[in-house]
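User: I've been trying to design a sequence by hand for this structure and keep getting stuck. Would you show me what you'd pick, starting by listing the structure so we're on the same page?

Assistant: Good idea, let's start from the same input. This is the structure you sent:
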């Protein structure tokens, strides 16, 4: 029996008898990230980074000089997972600041979720120079879209492999771990309590997205369905949808077509500024 099969069996049985207990254990697992070490291909970029600590303790890595682009990784992610994109942006004359989200890397905290990530983006933006663009991957992409609703100021935004709404993520997690109906409902209630917002509000279809944007997703993403990108695109009027056949959930970050599309977006928003100068 695999570990996952054992967890599903325990959750299936105990979840009927003590749904709140099972929900609590799964909620803690859902919100408590592991700090995973960087891959070997991330190390050269990591060695060249300038580490900075923001006012409220958030840690970040910085490269380059020029207009600032802010990056936010996903769940259990790292700043240097954007290595290919960071290299491209720095070569094109940008400063890149890549955050370590709450409870990730050297940033403080014990738990992480999309609301905490969105607040971290707002804290970072308040200390950094005006942002040319904000880019997020997976949960980081969802947090960028949420932070925009709360006043994050930037000229453009990019969402990569992001979910369109949190409720679907929670339901998928609960089903994957074999929680029966009562435990699933308790799990969602407990997450909602910790997040501090009704889960239904964390849905991009109700957002106001009025800035230029890019949405990237791979068709073979095994963690977040590519259909989520279609939902985001429908809600985001001034956005380009880039669907790739391959790239999975992580490898898409290294696709040169993604870096090229980001540069195209930046060139698009820079052109009016040059004309008016």
């Amino acid at each position: 029996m695999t570990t996952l099969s054992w967890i599903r069996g325990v959750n299936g049985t105990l979840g009927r008898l003590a749904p709140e207990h099972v929900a609590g254990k799964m909620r803690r697992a859902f919100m408590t990230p592991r700090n995973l070490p960087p891959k070997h291909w991330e190390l050269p970029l990591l060695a060249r980074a300038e580490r900075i600590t923001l006012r409220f303790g958030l840690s970040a890595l910085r490269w380059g000089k020029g207009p600032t682009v802010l990056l936010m990784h996903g769940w259990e992610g790292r700043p240097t997972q954007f290595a290919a994109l960071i290299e491209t942006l720095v070569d094109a004359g940008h400063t890149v600041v890549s955050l370590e989200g709450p409870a990730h890397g050297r940033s403080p905290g014990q738990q992480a979720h999309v609301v905490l990530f969105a607040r971290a983006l707002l804290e970072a933006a308040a200390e950094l120079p005006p942002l040319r663009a904000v880019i997020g991957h997976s949960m980081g992409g969802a947090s960028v879209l949420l932070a925009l609703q709360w006043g994050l100021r930037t000229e453009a935004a990019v969402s990569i492999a992001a979910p369109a709404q949190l409720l679907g993520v929670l339901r998928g997690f609960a089903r994957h771990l074999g929680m029966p109906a009562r435990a699933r409902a308790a799990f969602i209630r407990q997450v909602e309590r910790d997040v501090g917002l009704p889960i239904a509000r964390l849905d991009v279809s109700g957002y106001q997205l009025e800035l230029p944007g890019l949405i990237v997703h791979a068709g073979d993403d095994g963690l977040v369905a590519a259909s989520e990108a279609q939902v985001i695109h429908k809600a985001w009027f001034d956005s380009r949808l880039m669907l790739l056949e391959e790239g999975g959930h992580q490898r898409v970050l290294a696709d040169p077509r993604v870096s090229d599309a980001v540069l195209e977006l930046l060139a698009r928003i820079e052109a009016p500024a040059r004309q008016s100068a």
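That's my pick for every position. To get oriented when you compare it with your attempt: The mean pLDDT is 93. The CA atoms of residues 14 and 110 lie 26 Å apart.
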